[in-house]
Design goal:
Number of helices: 4
Shape: flat
Mean pLDDT: 76
Strand content: 25-35%
Largest sheet: 12 strands, antiparallel
Radius of gyration: 34 Å
Low-confidence stretches: 1-18, 53-61
Order of helices and strands: HHHEEEEEEEEEEEEH
Number of strands: 12
Oligomer: single chain
Length: 266
């Protein structure tokens, strides 16, 4: 009888606690971060994906290149035929007048100038795949820029052919990482910006979000706390846009234990 009475008293407490857990888990569902795309793709192998810098680093625009080319052709013709005049002979004034009289008709008025079609701004040319920067002993070493075949671009520091130090990596799908690298992987402190407007700032380890950091979601929700392999793992606080907060200990994105705060005790 006493046992029945005790269960009758404690049942509402357990029911409310389970309801809170279910509601909290429903709010945290779908907040996992998909694995980041790999960044260690190569062009034509590992040691041959860079281009040696040109001797003349200053290149003229195309419109000036044509002029330079025509001048070179003229100089070659003069060297082969020294009797040729330097400039072509000008037509006489009478010949010019006769040509003008043939082309101009006094009976017809000059045609109206047609409106020019609106010119669209020229698109920026996409960078060609390859490596442009410092090398040592046939490997990327120092500061350089790598453009991959799939459209990814990395610009930063290298060491013995691998990304090492500070660098910015822009994926072809729009994700941007700005931070430190080690052994060709994101490692240390950095930031991630996603195409949907969400962002992360904090620690990385071996190419994944691990350590402490803050993730701001596209719907204005925010998680700040501990991470492991891109999932909430450890103590953390999840706050919704309406101000509701969940303070808990997480394991692989699942709530293990709620943490009471001073506001909860009041």
């Amino acid at each position: 009888m006493k046992l029945f009475f005790l269960l009758f008293i404690l049942f509402p407490f357990f029911a409310s606690a389970s309801d809170d857990t279910e509601s909290a888990e429903s709010l945290t569902e779908g907040r996992e971060i998909a694995p980041l795309p790999k960044t260690d793709e190569r062009i034509n192998g590992y040691r041959e994906d860079y281009k040696k810098p040109k001797e003349n680093l200053i290149e003229l625009p195309k419109k000036y290149r044509k002029k330079e080319k025509s001048k070179k052709e003229k100089t070659v013709l003069r060297e082969e035929n020294p009797k040729l005049p330097e400039t072509a002979p000008k037509p006489s004034e009478e010949a010019e007048k006769t040509e003008e009289n043939k082309n101009v008709s006094h009976e017809t008025l000059p045609p109206k100038a047609e409106p020019k079609p609106e010119q669209k701004p020229a698109e920026k040319p996409k960078p060609k795949p390859g490596y442009y920067g410092e090398t040592f002993d046939g490997l990327r070493d120092g500061k350089g820029k790598l453009v991959l075949e799939n459209g990814d671009i990395y610009e930063g520091y290298w060491r013995e052919g691998q990304k090492d130090g500070h660098g910015i990596y822009v994926y072809a799908n729009g994700i941007k990482y700005n931070g430190t690298w080690k052994n060709d992987r994101m490692d240390g402190y950095g930031s991630l910006i996603f195409p949907d407007g969400s962002s992360y700032y904090g620690e990385f380890e071996d190419g994944a979000i691990s350590g402490t950091g803050t993730f701001k979601y596209a719907d204005k929700a925010e998680y700040s706390g501990e991470w492991k392999n891109g999932k909430w793992h450890g103590r953390g606080r999840f706050r919704l846009a309406n101000g509701r907060e969940i303070n808990a200990v997480f394991c692989d994105q699942q709530i293990v234990e709620f943490i009471k705060t001073e506001e909860d005790s009041e």
